[in-house]
Amino acid sequence: MEPGDSCSLIVFTRDLRIRDLPALQASIEASPKVITAFILDDDLLESLSSAPNRLSFLLDSLCDLRDSIRELGGELVLRRGNWVVEVARLVSETGASSVHMSQDVSAFARSRMDQLTASLANSSCKIQLHPGVTVLPPGTNSPGTGGFWKVFTPYYNKWIEARWRDVLPPPKQIHHLAGIPTLSVPALSELSVSATSPNLATGGESAGLERLKIWAKSSLQTYEENHNALALDDSSRIAPYLHFGCLSPLEVAARLQGRPGAAPFIRQLCWRDFYHQALSARPEISQVDYRNRGDVWRQDEQDAEAWRQGRTGYPLVDAAMQQLLLEGFMHNRARMVVASFLTKDLYLDWRIGAAHFMKFLADADVANNQLNWQWTAGTGSDTNPNRIFNPTVQSVRFDPDGGYIRRYLPALAGLEAPLIHDPDIETRRLLGYPEKMVDHKLAIEAYRAQLASYKSS
């Protein structure tokens, strides 16, 4: 380190990229020298030790970010420990005049930020938060009456008409403050004993940009008609890159806007913003019901485990759960079906499903994951408790030839449609495939009776 150098510090969090990153641009503009840093937070590592897919994706993304920063003349400073302590230590070691970060909305992120603010209260270093996690920052698109939007459609109508900030180009150069001790990016085996899904995607900005480019060229134009087709697998699969900030949601939206087929896809990016603004206003809804209707959920660990393992006897549900285990990803249509099955057919708590998704999904995001689960369970915002997905009907409609089921359930690969959607008892026994754990019609009758009892009490 060179004494007397004025410097600024950017601490990367859920923004592991160099393109369209206001926090990075602000840090470069703030001082002649910049420290680019990431803290391997002990609390975060503990929670991710049982979620190896996300942890692996994070480590990939850090390696890619480090390489991108080096190409610009900088160096990613990596520290491990208590996040607040390590950021404050970097400020003390370097004499940084400002700390720049992207603003996040989770209770975890906000708690860390409050602690850091208190830790640096007597310092001359200023903390500056910047947009970058969503297209529109939470709070900038609000109802005229104040508060936050509780229904999606009016939020979307304002969102799509809003003036978005300009997309920022990547910096041409980073003048790094030299001589700062740093760690190497650890191997996954150093942080977790759990294995990743065998077909997990590679993390990082470079991989995300390539994935977006390929998908937009091949599938964007037909997105509206094909995005629910399970066997086609026309999903963009950029969700984990958005979660870790390898891709800027604003840049994705701006890049695609106006292109044939883009409107329904951009609407999905708006759903992401919608959930972030809801979580920002009510952080407790990551764990408690948005709408408490008095549910007394069934307690049945055996049923929950059969669902987790894809042994429900409903081929579409089981194929989807196997996709999750194999890839750390699940098709969006399938996510709704398996969530409906858990919370309505089995009447098990949505938090059981949300926790399982957080464990295996590479894209598991508190706002999107928890609130999508609540939306399907009927306890969320803008929701309909009677929105029920019949797994067999969904299978016939969105996987008519059974290609998705064959891909993820090898035991049924020899069956043709329509038998593959609902094998008879003899076929199940011959193939070693389980019988249905519940009768859908009877289970939904029981679910509706339960709802009616809450309304009458």
From TrEMBL:
The record's annotation in InterPro entries points to: Crypto/Photolyase_FAD-like_sf, Crypto/Photolyase_N_sf, Cryptochr/Photolyase_FAD-bd, Cryptochrome/DNA_photolyase_1, DNA_photolyase_1_CS_C, DNA_photolyase_N, Rossmann-like_a/b/a_fold
Any one Pfam family match given in the protein's UniProt record, by short name: DNA_photolyase
Keyword field contains Flavoprotein? yes
Q: Where is the Photolyase/cryptochrome alpha/beta domain?
A: 6-135
Q: Which GO terms describe its molecular function?
A: deoxyribodipyrimidine photo-lyase activity; DNA binding; FAD binding
Q: Which cofactor does it need?
A: FAD
Q: Which GO terms describe its biological process?
A: nucleobase-containing compound metabolic process; response to light stimulus; response to stress
Keyword annotations for this protein, in alphabetical order, are:
Chromophore, FAD, Flavoprotein
Q: Is Flavoprotein among this UniProt entry's keywords?
A: yes
Instruction: Check the record and name the PANTHER family matching this protein.
Output: CRYPTOCHROME, CRYPTOCHROME CIRCADIAN CLOCK 5 ISOFORM X1
Q: What is this protein called?
A: Unannotated protein
Lineage per the UniProt record: unclassified sequences, metagenomes, ecological metagenomes
